[in-house]
Amino acid sequence: QVQLVESGGGLVQPGGSLRLSCAASGSIFSMNIMGWYRQAPGKQRELVARINRLGSTTYSDSVKGRFTISRDNAKNTVYLQMNSLKPEDTAVYYCYAEQITGNYWGQGTQVTVST
């Protein structure tokens, strides 16, 4: 079994920054994809960004140029640096990881962008 533990969420003013972290532990073989999804109230969960083991990244159009995803393979940890945050970025952010044994989700961390 694999566990994903997120940290770094919170309340921030518009234009501010936050950094999310997600550490994987347990029966890890080789995490192929790691990434972040988010779900706002009343909306479907959507991809924010993902990164493969070689460092290739994908971003949703809504966060391109503002968010940066990175990972530390030695620590099985993925990060999401979020800059120029907007109220519409408010959501629960979920860490996601994929390896040969299956797909895994974290418990979620709340990000609220508000004055």
- Please tell me how large the radius of gyration is: 13 Å
The run of helices and strands is: EEEEEEEEEEE
Residue fraction in strands? over 45%
Unreliable parts: none
The average pLDDT score comes to: 95
Find the structural class using helix and strand composition.
mainly beta
Q: How is the biggest beta sheet arranged? A: 7 strands, mixed
What does the model show?
- It contains no helices and eleven strands.
- The chain has 115 residues and is mostly beta strands.
- The strands form two sheets. Strands 2, 4, 5, 6, 9, 10 and 11 form a seven-stranded mixed beta sheet that branches. A four-stranded antiparallel beta sheet has the order 1-3-8-7, with no helix packed on it.
- A hairpin with a 4-residue loop joins β7 (67-72) and β8 (77-82).
- It is globular.
Key phrases:
115 residues, mainly beta, seven-stranded mixed beta sheet, four-stranded antiparallel beta sheet, globular
List the helices and strands and how they pair.
Blueprint: E1 2-7, E2 10-12, E3 18-26, E4 33-39, E5 46-52, E6 57-59, E7 67-72, E8 77-82, E9 91-99, E10 102-105, E11 109-113
Parallel strand pairs: 2-11
Antiparallel strand pairs: 1-3, 3-8, 4-5, 4-9, 5-6, 7-8, 9-10, 9-11
Concise summary:
Helices cover 0% and strands 57% of the residues. It is built from no helices and 11 strands.
